[in-house]
Amino acid sequence: MAFFRSIALSTFVAALFVTAVFAQSRTEGIGPANQYYPVHDFHDDFQVYDEATKAYVPYIVEQHADQTALSTYLDLESNRHYNLLISTKQDGYLFINASLKRKLRAGEWSVFSIDSLYRVYRQPEVFLTLYGAPGLNDKRLFIGYPKSATQKLVVLRDDNLSVRPRTFSVYNNFFGLGLLFLLASHAFLFSFYHRAFLRFYSLRDLLSLRAQEESFLINRPLSSTNVLFILNLSFVVAYLIVFVQSRNLDVFVSRRLLGAQNLGAVLGEFIVLSGLAFIVLMGKYIALEVLGGLYKLQSIINIHFFKVLQSSMLFFTTLTLLLVVIAYNTASMTWSESALLLPVLVFYLMRLAFLYIVIRSQEPIKNLYLFSYLCIVELIPLIIGLRFAL
Predict the structure, then answer these.
(1) Is the distance from CB of 49 to CB of 19 less than 8 angstroms?
(2) Both 123 and 224 in a single domain?
(3) Least CB-packed of 98, 162, 282, 305 within 10 Å?
(4) Which positions carry the signal peptide feature in this UniProt record (predicted)?
(5) For the chain, what is the domain count?
(6) Residues 129 and 246 reside in one and the same domain
């Protein structure tokens, strides 16, 4: 009996020792100076490119031990406020979305802020590739959270449970409030400027080549009525820009222009964008006045500006409503720049041709003058806009 008791006691002590050793190793953490808690280990997530199937397949030690490039997807949205930690035993390279980003020094940890990666790439996830020595043991890839100097050590359990921030979008509340605001602004114009509203939002009136030059909307482009409708169009354009930004598509080359992190900042961006759109629309009328004087088209300038407003109101309002309906009914839909850019390009080219027909029917003018006039006021701003946007 004493013999069995000694064996049981020795086994119990050994178990306690092993548990203590493993617990200690887990609390030490990972990364530089073990300053990070591991949130996720990509050891079992790596993929390799298979030439036979022309696709990425899961890494299998028996089949892919000689592979030098291992890839995996990194979910940026679900891992905000964490860090990406990379280490290789031999020199290697890090590729993000098939683009070389950094050389990995042997035995050194490279730490990336996932928030910074999200601000740079504006995508829900990115594709990482570690290139270096063959095999899986050469590469270590983790998502970690930095330890606090005043924080008590936490023993990480083997159940792999981790606390992550809830995924949220700062745009959700804004879109609801924005739609209510646009509904209220359109309702205001419909109630107090009923005749003008029906005229601006009439497709039949837009396609009419013979505009009513004596109309109160055409004779006074900068009247209070027209200015209110221009301001309302500015709200619609600003809402559309914020919507496109929320789909992780950069409207401007510099990502610092639109990078709000809370509802108040998004509302501020909406107000600024509305002001910029209003200034551009009003500036366009001034440009038409100047060029109209040079080309002796003063009698057609107001009709030209009215047709531009009519077409823009119908198109951008319809496009905004269509995109919002699609977004709310297909939450998992992948948005692309080409899918959003194509209808805008088609609209501007069709409007350019339509304006040529309208002006040609109103004024006896040489085609060369008319083409140069329309290129300056319609086509060149479009080309410049496409150069610096999207």
Answers:
(1) no
(2) no
(3) 98
(4) 1-23
(5) 2
(6) no
Q: What is the pLDDT of residue 7?
A: 45
What are the backbone dihedrals phi and psi of residue 252, each rounded to the nearest 5 degrees, phi first?
-110, 155
CA distances from 277 to 280, 283, 361 (A): 5, 10, 30
Residue 90 sits in a domain of what CATH number? 2.60.120
* Structural domain contains residue 214: yes
Tokens of 23: 């617990």
Q: What is the pTM of this model?
A: 0.57
pLDDT at 277: 93
What SS3 string covers 30-75?
Answer: ECHHHCEEEEEEHHHCCEEEECCCCEEEECCHHHHCCCCEEEEEEE
And the tokens for 298? 């003063």
pLDDT score recorded for residue 214 = 61
Alpha helices in the chain (DSSP H): 2-28, 61-64, 114-121, 171-192, 194-200, 203-207, 216-219, 224-246, 263-294, 298-329, 337-362, 367-374, 380-388
290-295 own/partner pairs: CB under 8 Å, 24+ apart:
291/373, 291/376, 291/377, 292/373, 295/365, 295/369, 295/372, 295/373
Amino acid occupying residue 73: Y
Same domain, 383 and 306: yes
Which three-class secondary structure string do you get for 229-263?
Answer: HHHHHHHHHHHHHHHHHHCCCCCECCCCCCCCCCH
Q: 88 and 52, same structural domain?
A: yes
Residues 110 and 203 in one domain: no
CB proximity list for 283: less than 8 A, separation 6 or greater: none
Range of the domain at 134: 28-146
Q: Is 18 a domain residue? A: no
| Whether 226 and 363 share a structural domain | yes
